[in-house]
Amino acid sequence: MRQGALALCALIAALAAPAAASAALATVLSISPNNGRAGSAITLTGSGYDEHSEVFFGAVRAPLVSVDSAGTLSASAPPGAGTVAVRVGNGSGLSPATPTDNFAYDAAPSEPWLGLDGNNSNSLGPPAEFTGRGIVYDRSGPIEWTAGELATEGATPTFAGTALATDLANGMIPVVTIEYRGYNGSYKPDAAFPGEGQGRDTLAEYVAGFVASASSILAAYPNHGILFEPINEPWGYTTPQFDGAQYADVIAKLLPAARSAGIPLASIYVGATGEHWVTQMYATQPSLRTEIEGWYLHPYGPPSGTGPGDLGGIQSLPAVQAEMTSGQNNLIVSEVGYCALDVNGGRSCGHDTFPHGSEAADALHETLVNALPYHEAGWLRALLVYSRNDGGWAMQLPGGALSEQGRALVAFAEAHEAGSTAGSSPPLIAGAGAGCLAPLADAILAGGRLFISDGFSCAGAPPGAQLR
């Protein structure tokens, strides 16, 4: 038996020993926040708390506990790692462990963390424009595999396998989406969705195909940090749409099969969106409360997304994360970005469309600034900017020149690398020929100085100038 388990058994025995053991066990109904680091202040709600209550993160006693009432107390998280149960002890023993008391320790933020959603195979210029600045995560169309596709057939790379190899050769970290059938972007209820309608007979087929594809990729490219997403935007294809129950059935079958095949569950990012999707998945398949180790979300932003049902913005992430009891310290966000009419020949792209590229660039910078604290906290592993290069979302223009959004992304990445974006106010960059907006000074304050990237200039400052 491991030392931690022995310690926990000893604690339970000690707590159960007093004669006052007739008191009811304490309970933990919720924990906020559900993730953090050593020293984080945590609030527990439940019952049975008193001045003698002790709090344990796994087998480790919390150093500071303050009881506000019989139903609320606060504690300071002791050193730890991974996901642990937070339990309250009284004279009768420890509160029973439940998924709602899980606390996930956030790792220190790791670099790189920025990326592009679809920039390699459709690239209009050298990927080094981005990878050279640490913008390396990539989710691209040909890397949207159909379950069962392999990296090679015999000794010959498949089409998808060739695209994957190109991604890696260009210095990117692929996020591979594995679909239940060829992706067609229709975004409407689909009777073939695994487990539903015609798909009732295809759920097992999809799971087997996912495992075969992921296993093939990992065998061909071990130790490359490749990540997986089971079905892109699954909520668009359920009947009715946004029915988390159907997708939960898929994931409940997929994760045990992936584990048995040796696929790390921390590399599988389960699709999620908006308010209560996560809760609905948990309610349908309770095993997912502890099985999921990563989530892949698609919020757009701004607006802030902080109001009930207003989940368009990047700032909605904490509200969605609060519903998680598993994987809450390992999130990927994709498809943030905006359409510029002047880049798209005056044609609308649908939602989040701006007349001018400078406005789209300002909005993108605001989103990046809002996302930065989540990355610095350690739980936002990667953020991918939507960069469909055949339209107004493009980060690059024909011939490889950066669009105004591309410039904003590159400048943000460079400033962050220099440690100068913390606390900055949007926007960092104006459009081409418009110079740099006044709030640039805010970004300079944290780092003291900022270098202007070659290829564009602020009013009165040549490319490569150093502002003090």
Structure description:
The protein has 468 residues and is an alpha/beta fold. The protein folds into two domains: 3-104, Immunoglobulins (Immunoglobulin-like, Sandwich); 114-421, TIM Barrel. Helices cover 26% and strands 21% of the residues. The protein has eleven helices and 25 strands. It has helices at residues 3-16, 128-131, 159-169, 203-220, 244-260, 277-284, 288-291, 317-321, 357-377, 404-417, 440-447, and strands at 27-32, 35-36, 41-47, 54-57, 60-61, 65-69, 72-76, 83-90, 93-94, 102-105, 114-117, 135-139, 144-146, 152-153, 156-157, 173-179, 227-230, 270-272, 295-297, 331-336, 339-340, 353-354, 380-386, 450-451, 466-467. Strands 11, 12, 13, 16, 17, 18, 19, 20 and 23 form a nine-stranded parallel β-sheet that branches. The radius of gyration is 24 Å and the shape is globular.
Q: Topology of this structure?
A:
Blueprint: H1 3-16, E1 27-32, E2 35-36, E3 41-47, E4 54-57, E5 60-61, E6 65-69, E7 72-76, E8 83-90, E9 93-94, E10 102-105, E11 114-117, H2 128-131, E12 135-139, E13 144-146, E14 152-153, E15 156-157, H3 159-169, E16 173-179, H4 203-220, E17 227-230, H5 244-260, E18 270-272, H6 277-284, H7 288-291, E19 295-297, H8 317-321, E20 331-336, E21 339-340, E22 353-354, H9 357-377, E23 380-386, H10 404-417, H11 440-447, E24 450-451, E25 466-467
Parallel strand pairs: 2-10, 11-12, 11-23, 12-16, 13-16, 16-17, 18-19, 19-20, 20-23, 21-22
Antiparallel strand pairs: 1-3, 3-7, 4-5, 4-8, 6-7, 8-9, 8-10, 14-15, 24-25
Helix pairs in contact: 4-5, 5-6, 9-10
